[in-house]
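Try it yourself: sequence plus uridine-5'-diphosphate, in.
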Amino acid sequence: MKRKILVTGGTGYIGSHTVVELIEAGFEPLIIDNLSNSNIGVLDGIRKITGVSPVYENIDLKDYASLNKFFQKNQGIEAIINFAASKAVGESVKLPLLYYRNNITSLLNLLELMPKYDINNIVFSSSCTVYGQPDTLPVTEQSPIKPATSPYGYTKQMCETIISDTVRACHGMKAILLRYFNPIGAHPSAEIGELPNGVPNNLLPYVTQTAMGIREKLRIFGNDYNTPDGTCIRDYINVVDLAKAHVVAVSRMLDKKNRKPVEVFNLGTGNGVSVLEIVSAFKAATGVDVPYEFAPRREGDIEKVWADASYANKELGWKAEASLEDTLASCWKWEMKLKEAHDKEQNA
Ligand code: UDP
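Structure, out:
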């Protein structure tokens, strides 16, 4: 019998890639998603890649009664990977209550229901945003947690605390908190990828849309930072590599290999790459130019951050493997696939 894993937010960007990797590793993922930032077509992409149509229910995790019903109906779930959350930093500043209510209430409901259905394991999507601008680089899991720069960032910090307190109080419960750096790229099949809503906030969808001519120019936010070329530095990690780390984390919990009830891992490549370096690497990987201009700094941006991923490498036996070039090529293949689908729809 395949082991059942609930993936909340399983039609989202990282969630969908994780569902694929879970299926390919022999698990049975079940998806809950309210499609607030994704669409139902993602399930087709998952089926095309894996040949499997996972159980899917459109449930809002804030709805305790519906979630309870879902668990009643789907017994035997052994772990939860909780991706479902609102994630746009700028939006969270404008709509803080939406972020606090959505991200916190959803987690509280899951944690409350877990013991009732004998589910002991949870993997949580956290973020390097919890480190703010670190004093020393690269950041390790022991680097201090800094005051958040947005309500979104606070929800990640609060959720980590809520999970840790709950696990400490609830015998048998275990958690793994995964702090992602900057996930980019798409599945190599280009059947699933990132689906930004409207004008992209994140760098890579903006780069590919500019390369496609959907946007006129990439605006690079700030070229006067204290970095070698003046633009911000991040640790960009391939989304499939990131997804695989979730499979490893879940397996570790089911095999009871966790060293502590709550474990924390940085998921990054360990390499810092500037915005300008992304633009030139994209050209090198695809042959396509990305017109850009420099624009003022974006409020709340961190100057530079990259991971020390050695703890995850050693403890999980996991490593980010994809090259930046292949990852950027996968972004472009996905953007071309989106264009093809869009053109087909226009001509229909
Ligand atoms: N960025 C940019 N132009 C854009 C979007 C992003 O220059 O249109 C920069 C942003 O300032 C940051 C980096 O790209 O330095 C990564 O931003 P993103 O929003 O993708 O991720 P973040 O690190 O902020 O979570």
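One thing you can check immediately is this: The pocket of uridine-5'-diphosphate is lined by residues 182, 201-203, 206, 218-221, 232, 234, 275, 298, 301 (CB under 6 Å).
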